[in-house]
Amino acid sequence: MKVAVVGTGYVGLATGISLAYLGHKVTCIDIAVDKIESLRQGKLPIFEPGLEELFLKAKQNLHFTTSFTQGLEQSNVIFLAVGTPANSDGSSNLTYLFSAVDETIAYLSYHKWPTVLVNKSTAPVGTSDLIVERVEAACIQHVVTVASNPEFLSQGKVVNDTLYPERIVIGGDDRAIRVLQELYSPIISQSFASPEQTPRPKHLKGVPIISVDTRSAELAKYAANAFLAMKISFINEIANLCDLVGADVTKVAAVIGKDSRIGSSFLQAGIGYGGSCFPKDTLALQFISNTIGYDFKLLSSVISVNNSQKFIIIEKLREELGPLYGKKIAVLGLTFKPGTDDIREAPSIPIIHSLLSGGAEVYVHDPVALDKARASLPSTVHFMNQLSDALIDADGALLITEWPEYLEIDAEYLSSVMRRPLFIDGRNAMDTSSWRGIIEYRGVGISNNENKRINSNVLQSK
Ligand code: UDX
């Protein structure tokens, strides 16, 4: 089939490149001239495992352009995959989306080619209906069918999640469902040769299609992200309680996660969620609820727990070091999670600001995001290319992102280079079985014996 994808971010590129790999003829459109130029030269603007392999293999089926007229020509399916960033009140900024819609409709009004206009951008419930209104106003509803097809891609795993999704959600009428089923048929039946770097999961024989109305599809995307965010905030509250009652959240999570009704994923306690999706989408869902007059109390708590959770490790640092003025603090990791160079809504940013406002000397390291971070952080931050330079003479180290290279750090090494070997693990990621007695270690919800002794009296007396 002939496919156009508007927007070359994570979602647009993963969709476009994967569909080209499956044999469709794909044109990716973006208004950013430099992005399109670098894609034409074979350079990907994002860091994503396995995407380059697919890109190279799919090259003959891929085109890149800044022109809607060239890109949309005779497309059977047009995907909208542009950013829908948050406004300051939490609502979604739909400027880019509707500008892409208007350009597309202007083209289709003239050429009247039958096509399915599919929104993949995460957008408020009712957005597809607004697109339908514009299609009807242009009198092209007999050729243009509007659909919502949300994606559930996780950064660092976008190739896996695109080729081997757990479900494909299509919101739209029978025609939209028929056309998208045909487009996705190699994925639905898993009848393609899987790329070397992203092999097919062994159990996967096929992928279910869930066809629904557009509003349910739109809400499902928010509900999925809000539910996962809720699991994280829930386990973080349990972790905070563990610190007070002398329990270990990793053990509590292991126990509850074995219950298949709960599930073990997204129960990793720490400094909370970041990234371009959970913070934005939870706020957008809260805004949608408020607008309609519904007080979504649980969601508000999820957001507020996450807002405060990142500062827990600064409290721990203060408990150990006292005032932070003049202390050298090593910050390990800047990205919102490992496997990506994305620092959007990363907990590292407010944590660093808080350290600086307390007068600390902040030395940061990250294996991939130092250059990006320079633009978002004050010039008083020290950016270290070598991990050892961040750690030397430090009064404390904070683990913010669980990059594999940090998990290898040796306690003897920390103890030899740091002024005070205090390691605060914001992700409960370190294997500390051999660390005892060598350095001071604190995780989130992994209580130390001191707390157990103090609080057992309180618990007994009640
Ligand atoms: C998420 C959803 O997983 C994906 O389905 C959706 O399409 C987009 O949003 P992503 O933002 O790439 O994907 O990251 P994810 O792996 O879900 O992690 C989000 C954040 O939650 C990270 O900051 C991560 O560190 C944090 N997290 C995750 C936890 O703190 N604990 C956990 O148990 C899991």
Tell me the distance between the termini.
69 Å
The residue-averaged pLDDT reads 95
Shape by Cα distribution: elongated
> How much of the polypeptide forms β-strand, as a percent range?
5-15%
* Biggest β-sheet description: 6 strands, parallel
Could you describe the 3D structure shown?
The chain is an alpha/beta fold. The protein folds into two domains: 2-212, Rossmann fold (3-Layer(aba) Sandwich); 249-442, Rossmann fold. 45% of the residues lie in helices and 13% in strands. It has 20 helices and 14 strands. The protein has helices spanning 10-21, 33-40, 51-58, 68-72, 95-111, 127-137, 158-163, 174-183, 185-189, 214-245, 249-257, 278-292, 297-309, 312-321, 348-357, 370-376, 387-391, 404-407, 411-417, 449-461; strands at 2-6, 25-29, 62-65, 77-80, 115-119, 144-148, 168-171, 209-212, 328-332, 361-365, 382-383, 396-399, 422-425, 440-442. The chain has a six-stranded parallel beta sheet with strand order 3-2-1-4-5-6, sandwiched between helices. Strands 11-10-9-12-13-14 form a six-stranded parallel beta sheet. Helix 15 (348-357) links the parallel strand 9 and strand 10 (361-365). Helix 1 (10-21) crosses helix 3, helix 10 (214-245) packs across helix 11 (249-257) and helix 10 (214-245) packs across helix 12 (278-292). The protein is elongated. Bound molecules: uridine-5'-diphosphate-xylopyranose. Residues 152-155, 225, 228, 232, 266-268, 270, 272-275, 277-278, 336-337 line the site of uridine-5'-diphosphate-xylopyranose.
